[in-house]
Amino acid sequence: MKALQYDTTIKANVPLKLGLFSDPHIDSPNFDEPTFVEHANYCIKDQRYILFGGDVFDAILRTDNKRAVNSLLERTDNQINAKLEKAYDILSPYRDYILFFGRGNHEESCLKYNGVNLLDLLAKMLNVGSRHKIDVGNYANFLRFNFKDARGKSAAHYDIYQHHGMGASAPVTKGMIDFNRITKGVNADLIWCGHKHQAIIDASDPIMYLDQNGNVVLKNRQCIMTPSYQKGRTIDPNINFAERMYSHTAMSGFGQLNLTPIWCDGKYEIIPDIKLTNKTSQILGSVVAAKIKAR
């Protein structure tokens, strides 16, 4: 697990905009490239920073005895090179807006069985000529967005606990068990998972505690599960391992998170506004949370 911090200058009523993406599986033959490019272009136009919650790569290699079939393999011996080149070609136009790569189970498998950290290599390629360094996290990470005042002191912050996710696609529970497990042991403003290729927002899971001054504080927590970028269902059993296992998937989409500082009672508070979208004009879910006290 890593703890990463992103500093920004606080501006009242001006939101910090984030795009939460997971599971694009860019090198998969089932990659929904047109929708992904549409959404990534929307983020650039909207001045929205991009974060990836794992499985940027499908990373199916010959060593993957569980998933490897000929239709999923690159038509070349240098498989890893081909996958990196494809991911770079897709993502390089957005390098100035990508903040973070989290590691998914597909990247974990490649690291475990082939000794290659694909995300490290991809980030190094994208960092050449980028305005900032793209961070590479682990399977689970804390991401703090720190809002600083004119003196450079922290005026408020917003914490995301990003975990790629575990288990199968959960077509019955749709991943809510994951949220329930994590929120029992994690204190963060937002729990963000992927992996199951489902699109879910859990609007409210409040926690009560004493702050440093001994005041009782009720803090709202939210959960979001972002879907994948895989094309619609298919009857071809060779196209996707999940399809062979009869795993339902949501439509391609991403999460939009706006963090707006407001001045209230002599201090700043962060108001989060979170949406799930498939097409940029179609909102799958939207929640504006109760006020979260600055700490």
Could you characterize the architecture of this molecule?
There is one protein chain. By secondary structure, the protein is of the alpha/beta class. It is built from six helices and 15 strands. The chain has a seven-stranded mixed beta sheet, with helices on one face. The longest helix has 13 residues, at 33-45. The radius of gyration is 19 Å and the shape is globular. The protein starts with a strand and ends in a 7-residue tail after the last strand. Residues 289-295 have low confidence and may be disordered.
List keywords for this structure.
20% helix, 7-stranded mixed β-sheet, 295 residues, disordered C terminus, globular, 6-stranded mixed β-sheet, alpha/beta
Largest sheet: 7 strands, mixed
Computed over alpha carbons, the radius of gyration is 19 Å
Strand order of the largest sheet: 5-4-3-2-13-14-15
* Derived structural class: alpha/beta
Enumerate the spans where pLDDT stays under 50 for 5 or more consecutive residues.
Answer: 289-295
Helix content bin: 10-25%
Quaternary status: single chain
Number of strands: 15
The percent range for strand residues is 25-35%
Average pLDDT over all residues: 86
